[in-house]
């Protein structure tokens, strides 16, 4: 590890991208201060740093979304100045955002050509070009597949294809693995290797330090807005990288002694939810698993069959006859590829969508018909999947966000009145306690970095001492230090009797925090796994259906459903 110098560039090698002396100020914050970044051609360059360190700001500058106050950008040795992403794209910079920006109801071809029809038209030439790019980089994407029929990993490949179609030579990937299971991460890294071998460069932002070390050729570490060093992956451990980054040790989410009690906090009985629009949004209609056993290694006695899932008529059921109990002191993890009913389960539990049948009991009371507010007031905490849409009022100050969802509760309310002073004081406490990096509580939530927004939400929800916490991706986007803090808070509350439903794409988190672990597939809880023995790889296989012969092939439709697995499925 070398904390002082950049990787050497040989005399004849010009950097694909060279950022020098970049400074960017926002009111009260210097987001970037004299940053230097040199990305060699044909390499993956990782950018790491704690939440709020300034990574996204730097990438927004490179992508033309923001103008630096100071500093220069050179592409292939030539100094450039970008006023918009269009300028950056024209110079071969492409960005794959964390939140995919594809239109579900359009095909891959339509999505890819949208906005760049002038390049190859919208017909045969574009189709040819897409096939060519897909083959060249091993993306395995077919132009005529509807995006809504694609899984997360394929959508990401479409995003990558889209920027390649526009001629990107340097791709910025913002936390691309946050939504992928281990096998998909491996496939993505294979794709990145293909890109490299063709001379393209990739800037890779991630908080997962193990992955960074396995995929990156060079690593630049940013701390508090400035470059503090570089690391050579082959000579660096995740722990050393974490130390360089946040000055703290890499945490591991380990379940200590069990705190699970006999007291049922939440009991869900035969919960079924139908898709709003009639057609199920699940891709693999007709590919119903019959049974599944997860964690099949001989040493996994806890892995057994949970349900027999044989429901060929369930095309419209996005949540299908789901039953479980979570006890005081128990974290129940649900593993699954996104889009298999998790959202509907969360919606039904928090009350933003009512169940079509079945019942939810909370501390012995039937709350199935209760409004969200009543559920929250009686002790249901909620860390939502999408912090921008459901967790925050982005344009409002932090203290108003403190009130969000807890309008009638202390310290936000005094009798019938809002207690603004109380809310403000408590926001300061949360900022302090949860290490939310901000110049103050009057700035908007939008001006916080992603990880700091997440910390604010977690702080708010934990502050009401919930009895039941619905935690969807509670540490998504937060750095290793903050992740450890959040895990500690959840564990601490669990010891006090909190019941948690944990949904996460981070399989280490799921395995490490959960007392019980279930797999959701096609709207059903199909299997039970033992967190003490299952590996992330086994869990990843179970989530994609590969753990069982019945789940392995999406085109093994039960009788009467032969037509359900069409050509789109093959492209998956
Ligand atoms: N539009 C803005 N207005 C005000 N402050 C901003 C704005 N954008 C970013 N900041 C601030 O700049 C700093 C750097 O934020 P940035 O989003 O670049 O961090 P990051 O390293 O990407 O963090 P994370 O890992 O949490 O995504 C933070 O303190 C953030 O609050």
Automatic annotation (TrEMBL):
Q: Where is this region: Disordered?
A: 547-572
Which keywords does UniProt give here?
ATP-binding, Nucleotide-binding, Repeat, Transport
Q: Can you tell me where the transmembrane regions are?
A: none
Transport among the record's keywords?
yes
Q: Does the keyword Signal apply?
A: no
Xref: SMART domains: AAA
Q: Name one GO molecular function term.
A: ATP binding
InterPro entries assigned to the protein according to its UniProt record, in alphabetical order = AAA+_ATPase, ABC_carbohydrate_import_ATPase, ABC_transporter-like_ATP-bd, ABC_transporter-like_CS, P-loop_NTPase
User: SUPFAM superfamilies given for it?
Assistant: P-loop containing nucleoside triphosphate hydrolases
Q: Where is the ABC transporter domain?
A: 17-249, 300-547
Where do Basic and acidic residues bias regions lie? 550-562
> How is this protein named in the record?
ABC transporter ATP-binding protein
Q: What organism is recorded for this protein?
A: Streptomyces hyaluromycini
């Amino acid at each position: 590890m070398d904390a002082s110098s950049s990787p050497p560039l040989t005399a004849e090698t010009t950097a694909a991208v060279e950022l020098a002396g970049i400074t960017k100020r926002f009111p009260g914050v210097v987001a970037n201060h004299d940053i230097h970044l040199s990305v060699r051609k044909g390499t993956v360059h990782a950018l790491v740093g704690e939440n709020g360190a300034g990574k996204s700001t730097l990438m927004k500058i490179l992508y033309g979304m923001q103008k630096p106050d100071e500093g220069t950008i050179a592409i292939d040795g030539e100094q450039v100045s970008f006023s918009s992403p269009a300028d950056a794209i024209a110079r071969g910079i492409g960005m794959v955002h964390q939140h995919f920006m594809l239109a579900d109801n359009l095909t891959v071809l339509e999505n890819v050509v949208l906005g760049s029809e002038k390049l190859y038209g919208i017909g045969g030439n574009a189709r040819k070009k897409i096939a060519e790019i897909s083959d060249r980089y091993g993306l395995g994407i077919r132009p005529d597949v509807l995006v809504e029929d694609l899984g997360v990993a394929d959508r990401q490949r479409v995003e990558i294809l889209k920027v390649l179609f526009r001629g990107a030579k340097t791709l910025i990937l913002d936390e691309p693995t946050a939504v992928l299971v281990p096998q998909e991460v491996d496939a993505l890294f294979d794709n990145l290797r293909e890109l490299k071998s063709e001379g393209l460069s990739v800037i890779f932002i991630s908080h997962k330090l193990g992955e960074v070390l396995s995929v990156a050729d060079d690593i630049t570490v940013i701390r508090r807005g400035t470059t503090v060093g570089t690391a050579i992956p082959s000579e660096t451990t995740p722990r050393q990288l974490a130390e360089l980054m946040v000055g703290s040790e890499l945490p591991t989410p380990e379940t200590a002694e069990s705190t699970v009690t006999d007291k049922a906090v939440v009991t869900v009985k035969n919960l079924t939810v139908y898709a709003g629009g009639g057609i199920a949004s699940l891709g693999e209609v007709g590919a119903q698993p019959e049974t599944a056993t997860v964690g099949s290694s001989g040493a996994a006695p806890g892995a057994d069959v949970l349900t027999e899932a044989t429901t060929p008529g369930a095309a419209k059921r996005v949540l299908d006859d789901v039953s479980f109990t979570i006890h005081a002191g128990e974290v129940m993890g649900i593993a699954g590829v996104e889009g298999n009913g998790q959202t509907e389960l969360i919606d039904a539990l928090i009350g933003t969508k009512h169940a079509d049948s079945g019942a939810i009991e909370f501390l012995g009371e039937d709350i199935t018909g209760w409004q969200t507010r009543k559920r929250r007031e009686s002790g249901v905490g909620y860390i939502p999947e999408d912090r921008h849409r459901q967790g925050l009022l982005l344009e409002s100050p932090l203290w108003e966000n403190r009130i969000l969802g807890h309008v009638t509760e202390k310290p936000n309310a005094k009798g019938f009145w809002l207690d603004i002073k109380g809310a403000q004081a408590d926001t300061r406490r949360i900022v302090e306690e949860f290490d939310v990096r901000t110049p103050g509580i009057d700035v908007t939530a939008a001006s916080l970095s992603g990880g700091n927004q997440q910390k604010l939400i977690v702080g708010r929800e934990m502050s009401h001492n919930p009895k039941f916490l619905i935690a969807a991706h509670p540490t998504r986007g937060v750095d290793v230090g903050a992740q450890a803090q959040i895990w500690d808070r959840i564990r601490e509350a669990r010891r006090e009797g909190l019941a948690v439903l944990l949904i996460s794409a981070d399989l280490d988190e799921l395995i490490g925090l959960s007392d019980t672990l279930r797999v959701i597939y096609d709207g059903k809880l199909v299997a039970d796994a033992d967190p003490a023995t299952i590996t992330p790889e086994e869990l990843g296989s179970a989530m994609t259906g590969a753990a069982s012969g019945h789940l392995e092939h999406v085109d093994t439709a039960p009788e009467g459903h032969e037509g359900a697995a069409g050509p789109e499925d093959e492209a998956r």
